[in-house]
Amino acid sequence: MDCIVKIASQKAVVIFSKSSCCMCHAIKRLFYEQGVSPAIFELDEDSRGKEMEWALTRLGCNPSVPAVFIGGKFVGSANTVMTLHLNGNLKKMLKEAGAIWL
After folding, report:
1. CA dihedral 44, 48, 53, 54 (to 10 degrees)
2. d(C-alpha 40, C-alpha 56), whole Å
3. Which of 32, 41, 67, 71 could form a disulfide with 61 if both were Cys (CB 3.0 to 4.6 A apart)?
């Protein structure tokens, strides 16, 4: 779990993903379209992927991917991120974390 916290604090937006996950792809596209350049960790391409996936589940991310961290804090997965986007709070969070400036 310490590994997840350390990675999540490395950049304003961090996404734990799987390359074969369609919802992960949609969430990554959403951030790119907002002008954000997130750090992406593809768990199915990482030697510690299973361990990190287990740690994400213990943090409360169910399903384990996509898991989004903004400003080093766990935000949630696809449903939470899409809700934040639709109600306008995602952009505010991204500005506060320094991921976007406009």
Report:
1. 150
2. 14
3. 67
Backbone angles phi, psi at 9, to 5 degrees: -95, 5
Tracing tokens 């361990």 back to the chain, one arrives at 51
**Hey, what long-range contacts does 43-52 have (CB within 8 A, 24 or more apart)?**
43/16, 43/17, 43/18, 44/18, 44/19, 44/20, 45/19, 48/3, 51/3, 52/3, 52/4, 52/16
| DSSP state, residue 65 | S
**97 in Cβ contact with 13 (< 8 Å):** yes
DSSP, collapsed to helix, strand or coil, labels residue 40 as strand
Q: Please name the residue ranges forming H helices in 60-102.
A: 78-86, 89-97
Q: Please state the φ and ψ torsions of residue 76, each to the nearest 5 degrees.
A: 145, -165
- Determine the distance from the C-alpha atom of residue 92 to the mean position of all C-alpha atoms in its chain, rounded to a whole number: 16
Tell me the pLDDT tens digit for each residue of 46-101.
999 999 999 999 988 888 999 999 999 999 999 999 999 999 999 999 999 999 98
